[in-house]
Amino acid sequence: MAQSVKGMRDLFGAELRWFQHIEETARRVFGRHGYGEIRTPILEELDVFKRSVGESSDIVNKEMYQFTDKGGREVVMRPENTAGVVRAAIQHKLLASSDPVLFYYIGQQFRYERMQTGRYRQFWQIGAESFGVASPESEAESLLMLHSFLKELGLKQMVFSINSVGTPESRPAFYTAFRAFFAARQEQFCSDCHRRIESNPLRVLDCKNETCQAALEGHPVITDYLDEASAKHHARLKALLTDLDIPYEENPRLVRGLDYYTRTAFELLSSDLGAQSALLGGGRYDLLVKHLGGPDVPAFGWAIGLDRLAMVLQQIHGEAPQVAPALLIPLGERAATEAFKLARGLWDAGIALQLETRGGALKKAMATANRTGIQTVLILGDGELDGGTITVKHMATGEQESWSMGEVFTRLK
Ligand code: AMP
DSSP state, 44? Predict the structure, then answer.
């Protein structure tokens, strides 16, 4: 029997209902904030990710689904969506004016990763990117949107971790202090960190190795080394978040390791996720658009893992909210014909209803209703047809009553 490819899963039933509920909520909330959807292809040229996610990253080095297509192109199944959105925005000259451009996306991403709880090789991300505004206000707006989205979904504990990584100009001062700190206790750090301290010192701060994390105790804090404008920006964002009642804490080890990330970096951890605790991450990437060949346009964005969000919400709330449809069971051919007319009227009126079309035994239909959690069963037989009524059975209580046809519409609504 064929199985799905390792790390790739089928979505259906209760889990998919969470996905749908999350996606609907995202569209509603983001639409309300003036964000428009963008859909980019799953395949992009290799270069798009090499230049954006970075050649030194694990994603690009070890985790990409990369192949040569039949035309000899080096292509990649996207491991994330920001690079594709930026590529598209440049290609279609969407950033030509000075107007803010606001996009959100919902899509599957691919990374050849080691399997763990909440970690898949095909997973889903929802993200938002705003282009053209460099202000802390634009970040607060995006974070408020994210906060409303998660609040509407019923996520309970939400404390954003934030940090500022300054600018390429202000970072050397921090590097000098940090390299001196590192040198004084270098034997405590792993070999990867010894490489990172040369090529990409910020990455030492978020090394997954516990010994390295312990060795970092008392490290110089990057926010103490910010240039004046970045420090003001950071303070203003924090003031806005406080004012908006968006809980946050500062995390000086939260970094983005690449040069085009500037100033704000943030993430949201969830204690419900165990070791794989990152639910979302984002930040400012003012230098990326230009780096990918576009105009000099500032940008800010984030991505949240849909698989993990669904998992957390399922843990908190159990079933996703849904309208459980009523089930209409006609008995006999004459009733079946009439049932179609009734069902069509209900559907056209926007009422959720499942129509039993198997014919035959009532018992079988009732058993299905029981198994699938249907709350209300409508039974239409010859007696009901003659009397212009319908028999209604409430599954939870076993109670039975008779409704007029008019009542069916008002009561089911
Ligand atoms: P990143 O693009 O690595 O910053 O990831 C952003 C979010 O995507 C993470 O916080 C996770 O929620 C989610 N994510 C990343 N990788 C995976 C994966 N392999 N499986 C499931 N979710 C993932």
Answer: E
